[in-house]
Amino acid sequence: MQFLTIIFSLMAYGAAAVFVFGILCKIMVYAKTPSPLKIPTTPAPTTSFGAAVRVLSEVLLFRSLYRSNKWTWLGGVVFHWAFLFVVLRHLRYFLYPLPAWDMKLQYIGIVAGIVLPIAVLYLLMRRTTVDRTVFISSLADYFALTLIFFIAGTGLMMKFYERPFMVDIKGFVYGLATFNFSAVPTDPVFLVHFTLVMILLAYFPYSKLVHAPGIFFSPTRNQADNPRERRHVNPWSPNLT
To answer: What is the DSSP letter of 227?
Structure first.
C-alpha cells in the first residue's frame, strides 16, 4: 500500500509539474512572438476593449466556429462547456470546506459528466466522416479525444456502477494538494481514472489542447482594426518612427 501511494503521489506531482512548466513555457513563447503586421480578421473591432470582447466571445461562445460550421460548433461548444463543469465539480476533492458556489454546481457537474463522452463521440464521428475534417485530423487529435472519452467513462463507472469509498479518494487527493499524504485508494477503476487524468495533464501543454491559453495571443483576434489611428510598428525595426 505504501509503495503504491508513493508511486501515484510521484505521478501526480510529476504530471502537475510538467503541466505548469509546459503551459508557462508556451505562454512565454506566445507573448514574445512578434506580430509584424496588423492582421485582425475583418470585420474587426476598432478599439482595444472591442478586441477584448471579441476574444471573450471566441472563448465562451466559439463565435468564428459558429460562422464556419454550425454542426461542428454544436459539438465543440457542448464538449468544452461540459468539460469545464466536470472540472469545477472535481474541485470538491481539492477544497475544504467546499465553497457554496461550487456546491451548487455539483448536480450540473454530474449532468455534464454524462454529456461529455457523448460530445466526444460526436466529435470523433465528425473527424472520421466529414471529408474536410478527416483531411486536417492527425493521430494526436484522435488520441486526445479518445483519452478524454476514457477519462469520462471511468468517471461515470465510479459514479453509477462501481462506487469506490469517496472519503478515501477525498483524503488522497486533498492530501496531495496540502502535502498531508494519505493512502491511495486501491479501487482499480479509480486507479485507471487517476492514471489517465495524469497522462492528460502531462500531455496537455505539448498538444493541440494548448489552444486553450493560445487563443488569447492570436493576433487575428486580439488586435484592434485601427491602422489609421495607431501605427503598428514592426517589432524587428523598433527605431522607426
So the answer is: T
Number of structural domains in the chain: 1
| 121 confidence band (pLDDT: 50, 70, 90) | very high
How far, in Å, CA of 158 to CA of 191, rounded? 11
More confident residue, 152 or 96: 152
Q: What percentage of the chain has pLDDT greater than the value 70?
A: 97
91 φψ region: left (φ > 0), alpha (ψ -120 to 50), beta (else):
alpha
pTM: 0.90
226 has pLDDT over 80: yes
H helices present in the chain, as ranges? 2-32, 48-61, 63-68, 70-89, 100-104, 106-129, 131-136, 139-160, 166-178, 188-203, 211-214, 219-222
**Is the Cβ–Cβ distance between 152 and 120 less than 8 Å?**
yes
| pLDDT, tens digit (0-9, with 9 covering 90-100), for 62-91 | 998 998 889 999 999 999 999 999 999 999
Residue 235 belongs to some domain of the structure: no
Greatest Cα pair distance, the chain, in angstroms, is: 68
What's 154's DSSP letter? H
CATH of the domain at 204: 1.20.950.20
